[in-house]
Amino acid sequence: MTRLRAYVNPESRDSPLVHSREKKHSDFALSELGALLFQIGAAVLIRSASADNEMNEKERMLKCTLGIIPYE
Amino acid sequence: MIGGLPSLIYKMFFLQIGVFAMTATFFRFVVALLFWISFPLVIVAALAPEESTEFDGQKVTDFGLQARDGRMLDVRDFRGRPVIVEFFASGSPACHAQLEQLIELHHRYAHQGLTIFALAVDRFETPETDKDVGPLILTMKLPFPVGAATRDLANNYHYKGVPATIVLDGEGKIGRIFFGFHEMEKIEPIIKTLLATKK
């Protein structure tokens, strides 16, 4: 008689192990997707913030030039 | 224009960090995604359907499935009733379809004495997909035992590709071989005949 290895014995603890392994794969991919979305959001915020700063700086320089506010 | 240069440096600094972080994260995400869905990437070609009576009545090697906890499920324990031995590959869509048919057969005839053993050929045909057999069993909710076939055993059962459905009679001899995919209705008659003559 040839002895073969069984893949999953439904009565043993094999099944939950494979389940948790599958879950880890999906969790990992989803967490990476979440991290990517977070990075995109952060980059957009930083970009808009730096654009605001640039406008404020230009506005301040314009006002200084026109004598509305004093040079610091 | 005085504030232009610091502002530009400020922007470039954050842009560089942002681009670097996004590139790294995106790369990791792609790798993770590929890892997650990697098991269907190996596709195994299916055999052309053929119902063979050439080997009917031939004795084949007995086998037993050994679980990790040491228990043995011996095919000889099922003498007197029909047994189906299914050779399949986890990366073969035709095998998935065949396993679906066998699940249906199991639900219909298991209580009458039909026993099904599914043997994956991944270990000797495509070792890189051997890890996919476990998840496939759970995904398809296979209700019958699954083991890893060896080349020698497969040859003894006249294996020449997947899927291969070997029906054994109550004496452990070949009752019929179905090479390639077959609808349940094609396999059912021989099962009914064997169940009618079971001891």
Short description:
Helix content of chain A is 72%, strand content 6%. Chain A has 1 helix and 1 strand.
Explain this structure.
The complex is a heterodimer of chains A (72) and B (199). Chain A has 72 residues and is mainly alpha-helical. Chain A is 72% helix and 6% strand. Chain A contains one helix and one strand, in the order βα. Chain A has one helix at 14-65; one strand at 2-5. The longest helix of chain A has 52 residues, at 14-65. In chain A, 7% of the residues are buried. With 199 residues, chain B is an alpha/beta fold. Helix content of chain B is 41%, strand content 18%. The A-B interface holds A 1-9, 12, 14-15, 18-19, 21-22, 25-26, 28-29, 32-33, 35-36, 39-40, 42-43, 46-47, 50, 53-54, 57-58, 60-61 and B 2-3, 7, 10-11, 14-15, 18, 21-22, 25-26, 28-29, 32-33, 35-36, 61-69, 71-74, 76, 119-120, 133-135, 137-138, 145-150, 152-153. β1 (2-5) of chain A pairs parallel with β2 of chain B, so a sheet runs across the interface.
Poorly predicted runs of 5 or more residues of chain B: none
- Provide the CATH topology of the largest domain in chain B: Glutaredoxin
Overall structural domain count of chain A:
1
How many helices of chain A in DSSP terms?
1
Largest sheet of chain A: none
Helicity range of chain A: over 70%
Number of domain modules of chain B: 2
Strand residues, percent of chain B? 15-25%
SSE layout and pairings?
The complex is a heterodimer of chains A (72) and B (199).
Chain A: E1 2-5, H1 14-65
Chain B: H1 4-36, E1 50-52, E2 63-66, E3 72-74, E4 83-88, H2 93-109, E5 115-120, H3 122-125, H4 133-140, E6 146-148, H5 151-156, E7 164-168, E8 174-179, H6 184-196
Parallel strand pairs in B: 4-5, 5-6
Antiparallel strand pairs in B: 1-8, 2-3, 4-7, 7-8
